[in-house]
Design a protein that fits this description.
4-stranded mixed beta sheet, 5 helices, 161 residues, alpha+beta, 45% helix
Length: 161
């Protein structure tokens, strides 16, 4: 074996194989894609006219939703109906999700005529004392969604005050 062959052998023995190179490239790609995506979303949020759009982002109704949720947790509707949370939909609607505690309540409400169902819905509407009204615009509204075991029983808008 010549010196040239010996040097070439030392160099090629220490180089990664093509298979190992592809694995490393794939590994680097898998790690970089989420990082680049997160950076792109951050850049878009900062420089977009649309504003933030990720969960937890600031929305004009967020403060009102927080007030309704806090009030409903401190003072559960009808004492034992559990407020599950408040969602913002259509940029102008707060939806208060209320879980009914028993199948009896769900049956009574679901078997009534719509007018009577609405009277049950109004019982869960947050009062003005919740502090959400000053934080809402004229076209904004609160909707109560009554649920039992995750299934909707009745839903309706709270009357404007």
């Amino acid at each position: 074996m010549s010196d040239h062959d010996h040097i070439e052998s030392d160099i090629t023995d220490n180089l990664p194989s093509v298979r190992e190179g592809r694995s490393m490239l794939l590994f680097a790609f898998v790690l970089l894609v989420p990082v680049i995506g997160a950076l792109g979303i951050g850049f878009y949020e900062k420089h977009s006219d649309d504003g933030p759009f990720l969960a937890g982002a600031s929305h004009p109704l967020t403060a009102a939703a927080d007030k309704v949720e806090d009030y409903s947790r401190l003072f559960p509707p009808q004492g034992n109906w559990r407020a599950q949370g408040v969602r913002i939909i259509d940029d102008e609607t707060l939806v208060l999700d209320v879980e009914l505690p028993s199948p009896k309540h769900a049956t009574v409400i679901s078997t009534r005529r719509p007018r009577i169902q609405y009277s049950y819905i109004k019982l869960a509407c947050p009062p003005d004392e919740a502090g959400h009204k000053p934080l809402m615009n004229e076209g904004d509204r609160v909707v109560v969604s009554r649920r039992f075991q995750g299934k909707m029983v009745a839903e309706g808008a709270c009357p404007p005050s």
